[in-house]
Amino acid sequence: MTDRLNILIIGGYGIFGGRIVELLEDDPRLSLTVAGRSLQKASAFCQARHQAKAQLVPAAFDRNGDLTAQIASRRPDILVDASGPFQAYGDDRYRVIEACIGQRVNYLDLADGSDFVAGVGGFDAAARTAGCYVLSGVSSFPVLTAAVVRHLSSDMERVDTIHGGIAPSPFAGVGENVIRAIAGYAGQPVALKRDGKTATGYPFTEQLRFTVAPPGRLPLHNTMFSLVDVPDLRVLTELWPDATTIWMGAGPVPAILHRALAALAWLVRWRLLPTVSGLAPLMHWATNHLRWGEHRGGMFVAVKGTDRSGAPSSRSWHLLAEGDDGPLIPSMAVQALVRNILDGKLPAPGARAAVRDLELADYERLFANRTIYAGVRDDSPVAAAPLYARVLGTAWNELPGAIRNLHDFDTTASARGRASVERGGSLLARLAAFIIGFPKAVADTPVSVEFGASDGTETWTRRFGDQVLSSQAFSSRQFAGNEKSAALLCERFGPLTFAMALVVENERLSLRLRRWTAFGIALPMWLCPRSDSYETTEDGQFHFHVRIWHPLTGLIVRYKGWLEPDRQAHANRGQPKPSDGRPPQIF
Q: What domain range is 505 assigned to?
């Protein structure tokens, strides 16, 4: 090995290869050979990386040519195959691996095909003899999912079911090889484990819905995930043989494209269409040009089983990535392995799926430097807890004490303080305020809130004014959302229900609208009143701020002030807390 670790990246200027370079280029201990069929494209890519501290070397590389000669001329310490699609490599699909073993060169790939990854183990003895490691599937599926399952099940006696999914941002940018792979297996039979038996699944013809919601963060919208053919369907079965069901999905957006692909997959399943592969170029164009929605992506892994006492245990891990950081996650397994190798932690010789070579902590170190947030929700049945604690999960403990005290009650509580109220002057604003029952404008007035809790629902009655008989009161009901409002706090005013995310940031609890319904029917968000609502503390005292407006009406109402809880009403909650002191969590 030279002074620099020399890494040859096949497909180095492609989507995934380029992201690997982006993740590694800040380390001067590396020499990255950016290889592909076009030397001109490789050179242009390297020249554009002006901030790189690693040495970038463009190279021509033809995987259909003399691999032994090409690898020998470059003499890499590690070869990373970031090209694909691995599902379409044909009968001689492992020729790159064979060439690497023959040259005693270590090998990594980002293969997402279950058959390809499963077959890599056949080269284990040869790789051990050569003294090199051959790691396949070095990506989110299955390396990150396996690390997460180990983390979630660390104190479980048995794992029964594993479900997971990736929801990419619509602006992530998807390579043609990825689309070709998806088109190739959509609607085709794949083996998986279901209800304790080996069964047949058909990618993109079976779905589940899930809300990716790291505690205290703005969740993704409830997403439809479709079954995909990924290595996890096999390798996780080997790691957790007692699991009865293992299911992995993808939730591409916009939803209309996802549903169109599902419809095509059904045609393949019904044998009305031999394959979707012929539509891969059109699918690639549509995916990269028809984009709208939030530039955010996410991932989840949910595990159910039993703990060591025999009680049911259910947990889920949620990951949220903002903006351009999300598309980097599938390439981070390579980054984490390379960082470990530079630190002297070399993988053991042999050929295998890389599901045991990284742990969640390896990823978390990389997430910390980016706008990537992850957290665990404990979904097991536990003792009663405050509504806000159940929705927030572990983020409940991040709130200032004054905010927690106001929301921490058993069946009844009250709080009193002072507030100011401002009302909008337009006719539509006055009409909207009248329908909801918002208080009239006043510069300074006493305010009280009566809280009541029953069967998981809280009733809030707010009164503005000096006396009960002359005061202005309006009430609402709050409860934890489910289905498409999962992980959200719902507040109902008569026939209208508003679903809000509870977001904890800078010791402030913000309530952000995500969806609304009238008589249970979902309404478009562009019609929804806008809200700027948050709770905070000043000098240890609870303060609230609520502003509701709409582009058509202008300001509807703004009220803000402070509250002091009735200490006796909030003291000595009747229900015990969980033994570890943490509130239950939902998703």
A: 387-570
pLDDT digit string, tens, across residues 216-263:
999 999 999 999 999 999 999 999 999 999 999 999 988 999 999 999
Question: Cβ(323)–Cβ(295) under 8 Å?
Answer: yes
Instruction: Looking at the structure, tell me whether residues 433 and 452 fall in a common domain.
Output: yes
* pLDDT score for 68: 95
Total count of domains within the chain:
3
Phi, psi of 341 (to 5 degrees): -65, -40
Locate the DSSP E strands across 267-311. Answer: 296-307
Contact of 113 with 229, CB cutoff 8 Å: yes
Q: What is the pLDDT of residue 471?
A: 60
User: pLDDT tens, 266-316?
Assistant: 999 999 999 999 999 999 999 888 888 999 999 999 999 999 999 999 999
Whether residue 49 is found in the same domain as residue 145:
no
Same domain, 180 and 120: no
In Å, how far are 122, 162, 174, 383 from 316, measured between CA atoms? 34, 10, 27, 18
Q: Which residues make Cβ contacts (< 8 Å) with residue 202, sequence separation at least 6? A: 187, 188, 189, 190, 227, 265, 268, 269
**Residue 576, pLDDT above cutoff 50:** no
Q: What is the pLDDT of the chain when averaged over all its residues?
A: 92
Q: Answer yes or no: do 480 and 548 share one domain.
A: yes
The answer as to whether 394 is a domain residue is: yes
At position 567, the amino acid (one-letter code) is: R
> Which residues make beta-bridge pairs with 501?
512
Judge whether 274 and 268 are in contact, CB under 8 Å. yes
pLDDT of 455 strictly over 80: yes
What is the structure's pLDDT at 381?
64
- Of 584, 151, 212, 185, nearest to 380 (Cα)? 584
Q: Tell me whether residue 349 is in a domain.
A: no
Q: Could you write out the three-class secondary structure of 507-531?
A: CEEEEEEEEEEECCEEECHHHCCEE
Neighbours of 56 (CB within 10 A): 22
d(CA 488, CA 45): 44
Alpha helix (H) residue ranges in 205-295: 232-239, 255-269, 280-289
For 138-157, letters b (16+ CB in 10 Å) and e give bbbbbbbbbbbbbbbbeebe
Backbone angles phi, psi at 359, to 5 degrees: -120, 165
Token pair in block for residue 36: 């592909």
pTM above 0.85, yes or no: yes
Looking at the structure, tell me whether residues 145 and 129 fall in a common domain: no
- At residue 574, the pLDDT reads 42
What is the predicted pLDDT for the residue at 520? 93
Query: Would you state the pLDDT for residue 446?
Result: 94
> Of 136, 169, 196, which residue constitutes the final position of a domain?
136
CATH of residue 15's domain is 3.40.50.720
Taking the C-alpha atoms of residue 587 and residue 315, their distance in angstroms, rounded to an integer, is 10
How many CA atoms does the CB half-sphere of 518 hold within 13 Å? Answer: 6
